[in-house]
């Protein structure tokens, strides 16, 4: 580097020269680039490889991505399978809501996911765009777009797993709906293969 004793090494095998990153800085580079938007493993590899090089970088990046807590919280790697069960048709409007999460979709206006909410009695549908698929995001969207307008349902059905299994409850509890939840006996049912909506 000009005016410096420090030498920078580059890998010149690709179109653009990629800086060789010494061991102690590799994790820092990963954190800085990956933590911007927590893209998947493949996207993180491409992002880092476009600027930097170190031996076995793909292996390091894969391990770090898999260990990333925000990634683990927001991405579903394995769906829980619940047994097929029977339930009675609802007898009142907005007493039983079916939630579904669609995505990831191509980004539009910053939104990547879509939460659909359908009243099982009237079949009234609502759809809300979401920035991410975190449990908190889903819970907030459900609260502000459905509960605030139609009231707290007695029953909520989702056919997706862990995403909002615990998070939705936690968020609803945190937002002081605890008593309301207990009084109205809201409960989640995890049904797979419920396609009659
Ligand atoms: Zn991440």
From TrEMBL:
GO terms for molecular function: nucleic acid binding; RNA-directed DNA polymerase activity. The gene is pol_3841. Its EC number is 2.7.7.49. It comes from the Eukaryota. It holds the Pfam family rve. Residues 86-197 form the Integrase catalytic domain. This is RNA-directed DNA polymerase. It is an enzyme of class 2 (transferase). One of its GO terms (biological process) is DNA integration.
């Amino acid at each position: 580097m000009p005016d410096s004793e420090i030498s920078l090494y580059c890998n010149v095998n690709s179109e653009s020269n990629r800086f060789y990153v010494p061991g102690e800085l590799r994790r820092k580079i990963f954190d800085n680039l990956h933590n911007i938007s927590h893209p998947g493993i493949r996207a993180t590899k491409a992002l880092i490889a476009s600027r930097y090089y170190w031996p076995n970088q793909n292996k390091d990046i894969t391990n770090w991505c898999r260990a990333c807590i925000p990634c683990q919280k927001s991405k579903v790697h394995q769906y829980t399978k619940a047994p097929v069960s029977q339930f009675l048709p609802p007898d009142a409007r907005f007493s039983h809501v079916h939630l579904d999460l669609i995505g990831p979709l191509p980004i539009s206006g910053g939104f990547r996911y879509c939460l659909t909410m359908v009243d099982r009695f009237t079949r009234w549908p609502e759809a809300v765009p979401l920035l991410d698929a975190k449990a908190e995001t889903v819970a907030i969207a459900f609260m502000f777009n459905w509960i605030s307008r139609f009231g707290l349902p007695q029953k909520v059905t989702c056919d997706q797993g862990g995403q909002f299994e615990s998070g939705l409850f936690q968020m609803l509890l945190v937002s002081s709906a605890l008593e309301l939840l207990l009084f109205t006996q809201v409960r989640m049912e995890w049904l797979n293969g419920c396609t009659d909506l």
